[in-house]
Amino acid sequence: RTPGRRSSGSITRSVMIAGVTPRTTVAVFAGSFAFRRTLPPYLSSRKGAAATRTPGTSNSTLNPTTRRPVLGRRSRQVTMAASSSSSGLLAVHVSVKVKEGMEDDFIAASLANATNSVQEPGVSRFDLIREVGDPKNFTLVEVYNKDDAPAAHKETAHYAAWRDAVADMMAEPRTNVKYETILPANEDGWAVPSALSSGQKEAGEAKDLIDVHVFVSVKPDCVEAFKAASIENATNSINEPGVTRFDFLQEKDDPTKFALVEVYNSDDAPAAHKETAHYNKWRETVADMMAE
User: Fold this and answer.
1) 3-state SS string over the chain?
2) What is the pLDDT along the chain (292 residues), one digit of tens a residue?
């Protein structure tokens, strides 16, 4: 299998440590991974759960990986109208595995980098997420709003400091997967809160959220139908009281692969989501679209 990717059906959990998130959003992928997010104080004071997919992973069936947020920003987006052909922002999911015993040092260095990165004009989101099942695994969720933003980010002093600081902490080379954002459908939906963009913090704890990333691979002739069904599901899901983010992403190098980034603000929210009419309609609609 491709390095950095998980096979279909696998499930992992993580925690969010920190992150920059505009209004509520969710990402859709072929497969699902759950992570416990450890978000910063500016996220939410309520407990929550989210799932995430490891960058580079390819799955056709829904496979959740759970991670805990380490850094993250929270905002709510109630309307997420989008057409299946809309052009979005660039989302980059970076998968990191650190050496045992280096986890705390990695978090410290990464929080410093993320706190500064979210203040860059070309950055719309910068989350740090830690896997629940294996605390040595982390995911960086970076969203850029300008074509030259990724390159500009790598020219900053804080990125260079982070790169050098974590170099010897890596248990294996970092991998990444690039996506085009489908939902939220416009740049306003990804806007960084003014407090974060000025280096301040908001109330709440990232660790109180659950971050789940679902990765999906669909049949080539079902791509547009899958996008339409998933846009409808995400648009309804974001209005659930237990949902803080519901992003829908499409892989740039392989348009048959998608990612759902779901962030929940209570322990029972993931189960409640699966009881909704819109989720069950989506599940049944896309069942025969799965490539694996």
Assistant:
1) CCCCCCCCCCCECEEEEEECCCCCCCCEECEEEEECCCCCCCCCCCCCEEECCCCCCCCCCCEEEEEEEEEECCCCCCCCCCCCCCCCCEEEEEEEEECCCCHHHHHHHHHHHHHHHCCCCCEEEEEEEEECCCCCEEEEEEEECCCCHHHHHCCCHHHHHHHHHHHHHECCCCEEEEEEEEECCCHHHHCCCHHHHCCCCCCCCHHHCEEEEEEEEECHHHHHHHHHHHHHHHHHHCCCCCEEEEEEEEECCCCCEEEEEEEECCCCHHHHHCCCHHHHHHHHHHHHHECC
2) 333 443 332 334 455 665 433 322 222 222 334 443 333 322 322 222 333 333 333 333 454 565 656 655 433 444 445 544 456 899 999 999 999 999 999 999 999 999 899 899 999 989 888 887 888 999 999 999 999 999 999 999 999 999 999 999 999 999 999 999 999 988 878 876 666 666 666 555 666 788 888 999 999 999 999 999 999 999 999 999 999 889 999 999 999 999 999 988 888 999 999 999 999 999 999 999 999 8
Region 14-289: CATH code: 3.30.70.100
Q: How far apart are CA 125 and CA 155, in angstroms?
A: 18
Domains in the chain: boundaries:
14-289
- Residue 119: both structure tokens together: 């203040």
How far apart (Å, rounded) are the C-alpha atoms in residues 10 and 34?
10
Could you tell me the pTM of the whole model? 0.77
Of 61, 50, 127, 59, give the one whose Cα is nearest residue 96: 127
- CB count within 10 Å of CB 228 equals 14
